[in-house]
Design goal:
Layout (H helix, E strand, L loop, with lengths): L7 H20 E4 L3 E2 L1 E4 L2 E5 L3 E4 L5 E3 L2 E5 L2 E5 L2 E2 L3 E4 L3 E4 L5 E12 L2 H6 L4 H18 L3 H6 L1 H15 L5 E12 L2 H82 L5 H19 L12 H17 L1
Antiparallel strand pairs: 1-5, 2-9, 3-4, 3-6, 7-8, 10-12, 11-12, 12-13
């Protein structure tokens, strides 16, 4: 069995093919979507590669390395991610306007809009954004008291985003949103706040109880007042109805007596006074009642009664005539 020996020409040819393959591979650069690379030619900015296939000159063109934050560590990479990124900064201590030290954890959502500025205008972009966020957050919290800090997250987020967006514009970065995750006051302050909250709740409960009792007393007094008014109105109506009944009774009696007088006048004639007839009738009725009593039968009459007796005598003749 013979062994084939490579000639020098064959070896050179193989080496040239391998070098050509390596050269072609170094010449063609494939950029994924939403990523880019900054290309420097002989140390000077040359181009910003777009997604897809790009051609560069090996050994003359090279991708610029920038600092990126991955898995909580700063790393060097020649690829720039153009998607929105989230930085979860560690907790930091800030001091409020009323001198309360508080821990705050912030989330920052940003996006690289200009890769050239992000590469050449700042050395360490993630670290610069983190330090800028920390200092800006300290300034904003320093203008607020603790109670305002706990209840004004949206205001803090808006102010912080506006300041960061303006400051990072020269770095080619757009800050889309800032969120405060946790605001943690000291334990002593939390205990004091809990006691204050409990006292406020007890105060509100007492106020509600007193207001309820006051409302109940007002309703009771109003009910009693209404009842008294209703009773007074009822008594008034009763008295009015009673007075009207008495008046109606008197009117009816007067009408009956008037009718009796008319009948008597028709019966005895106009020559005899009907009033004398009625008086005589009442007198006779009274004498009958006196005669039926068990007491003494002696009756004293006034002197003026003699005229009445004379009228009775005249009526007696009238009855005999009838």
């Amino acid at each position: 069995m013979q062994t084939e020996i490579l000639t020098p020409f064959t070896i050179v040819l193989i080496v040239l093919v391998v070098l050509a393959i390596i050269f072609v591979k170094m010449t063609l650069v494939i950029i994924p979507q939403s990523e880019t690379k900054i290309i420097e030619r002989l140390g000077r900015y040359h181009a910003t590669l777009k997604p897809g296939i790009n051609i560069i000159i090996p050994f003359i063109d090279r991708a610029k390395n920038i600092v990126v934050l991955k898995h909580g560590r700063y790393l060097y990479s020649n690829s720039i991610d153009l998607r929105e990124q989230v930085y979860d900064f560690p907790k930091q201590n800030v001091i409020t306007k009323d001198n309360v030290q508080t821990e705050i954890n912030a989330l920052l959502y940003f996006q690289i809009m200009d890769p050239f500025k992000a590469t050449y205008e700042i050395d360490n972009l993630p670290n610069a954004i983190e330090k800028l966020t920390q200092t800006t957050l300290r300034n904003i919290i320093g203008e607020l008291e603790l109670d305002e800090t706990l209840t004004s997250r949206d205001t803090i987020n808006t102010k912080l985003r506006a300041v960061l967006d303006d400051a990072t514009d020269k770095w080619g970065v757009k800050v889309n949103r800032v969120e405060l995750q946790d605001i943690t006051p000291p334990t002593t302050v939390l205990n004091a706040m809990e006691k204050q909250m409990q006292a406020e709740r007890n105060k509100r409960a007492q106020i509600l109880t007193s207001e309820g009792e006051k409302a109940a007393e007002i309703l009771a007094s109003e009910g009693e007042k209404t009842a008294m008014i209703n009773r007074a109105e009822a008594q008034k109506q009763q008295q009015i109805l009673h007075a009207e009944g008495v008046a109606q009774d008197r009117i009816r009696k007067a009408e009956a007596e008037s009718k009796d007088i008319e009948l008597i006048t028709d019966a005895v004639g106009k020559s005899t006074n009907p009033a004398n007839y009625l008086l005589a009738q009442k007198y006779i009725q009274m004498l009958q009642e006196l005669a039926q009593g068990d007491k003494t039968k002696t009756v004293y009459l006034p002197y003026e009664a003699t005229n009445l007796m004379g009228s009775i005598g005249g009526i007696k003749d009238l009855f005999k005539a009838d």
